[in-house]
Amino acid sequence: MTDNSLKTALVTGGSRGIGQCIAMRLAADGFAVVVNFAHNTAKAEETVAAIQSVGGRAIAVKGDVGNPEDVAALFTAAKEAFGRIDVVVNSAGIMPMATIRESSLADFDTVIATNLRGAFLVLGQAAAHVDDGGRIIALSTSVIAKSFPSYGPYIASKAGVEGLIHVLANELRGRRITVNAVAPGPVGTDLFFEGKSPEQIAQIANLAPLERLGTPEDIASAVAFLAGPDGGWINSQVLRSNGGFA
After folding, report:
1. Which of 1, 9, 95, 198 has its CB surrounded by the most CB atoms within 10 Å?
2. What are phi and psi of 95, to 5 degrees?
3. Which is the catalytic residue, given 37, 154, 192, 245?
4. What is the pLDDT of residues 167-208, one digit of tens each?
5. pLDDT tens digit string along 61-76?
6. What one-character-per-residue DSSP string does 5-18 give?
7. What residue segments make up the domains of the chain, in order of their start?
8. Which fold has domain 8-181+216-239?
């Protein structure tokens, strides 16, 4: 049985890192949460249990954001569980390092399939299913402004995401749905630490004037602002939550 009075947020990539923190923050703000995950069932169930332990409502739904059938099934499951979708946050993403050369084409295709194709599919389903007056939020990256070597595929995918949010905001004219992106700077997650030496991590942390890495909570706060009542007049924008990194 569904409760149509309860606002619902769907978070892709919601089982780990930034996505997990976003899911838990939105639950704390009163949303029922649909936690999407691709592989790690245990982490997704851990996220749901943490939300439920403090009186929140949540379910976990497995699915690959790059697969149209999985994404459609994810939105169907959300509607069946909670009756409505008010907020969609596309946080699912991958970040392998690869230089721009033919030998990196497989890495490029993998990143595009998840980060850009996945965003296209999730945003499209969100446009079809989010209630009028709702919020759609995609995760981008502030590293776009830095053009670091080996970030080419990742930056290309996220630059595409930023293009999509501006177009979708215009396509949803008349429905009072805002479409925005949050672009984190370096955040201390497993995704960020993978493949980096302690020296590289320290160097990147000091790039921002605030001289630290961001935390998942920093990014969740920015998403919560856009998803909440105070963010209602922000539309077709990229909020760069990065401590002055770029």
Report:
1. 9
2. -145, 65
3. 154
4. 999 999 999 999 999 999 999 998 788 888 999 999 999 999
5. 999 999 999 999 999 9
6. TS-EEEEETTTSHH
7. 8-181+216-239
8. Rossmann fold (3.40.50)
